[in-house]
Amino acid sequence: MNSIRSQGWVMIWILSFMIVMVACSQTSDPSLPPTATPTPTPPGGGGPLLEPTPEVVSRCQGLSGELEMLVLVGPAEAAGLEPFAVGVIPFTVQSNGGVHSIQGGGPIFYQEVLAEEWGTYTVRLEMDTTIGGECVGDEGSEELNFVIDMSGEQMLEVRAEGFSGDYPWSGSHQSNLSFPLAEGSTAEGEGWAFVLHLNK
Description:
The protein is 13% helix and 52% strand. By secondary structure, it is mostly beta strands. The protein has a domain at 64-198: Beta Barrel (Porin). It has an eight-stranded antiparallel β-sheet with strand order 6-5-4-3-2-1-8-7, with no helix packed on it. The longest helix is centred in the N-terminal third of the chain and has 26 residues, at 2-27.
């Protein structure tokens, strides 16, 4: 009886040993070298990969708007009158390789008779305008540098007690104007002004 029991333990031990050997042979092959999982490295070696820095988008990119043109006529300034609008010139900003070019233009036609206590003045204006230039500057300090070409005809007629004056103008004129990139920025001179309006 003891002999049968001893043989049973030997069989159990042999079967256990075989099961362990089979399991080991399926999980690893001692004849093959161990493999390592490759760690990604940047081209040319170096340290670990870094997250890309997000690109800063300029406020100039995709910008559009218009320049409102205002004119101050004859004795209006002496009478304390404000300039009045005669038209708007649309523009857009085209970006290419970090350069933000301004493009725009269009016709302006205006005719109006303004009456005041001291008399009247009549404005007739017919012009073609072209806008060029560039939007420049660092983030938060951008500005629009316009080159405005105007050509056409203008007639200002001033009628007051004891005074009559006609002020024709015909030809072309170029203005270089700079505006901070902010709605309502103004550039002005003697008898004229431009106001910046932004669509974005």
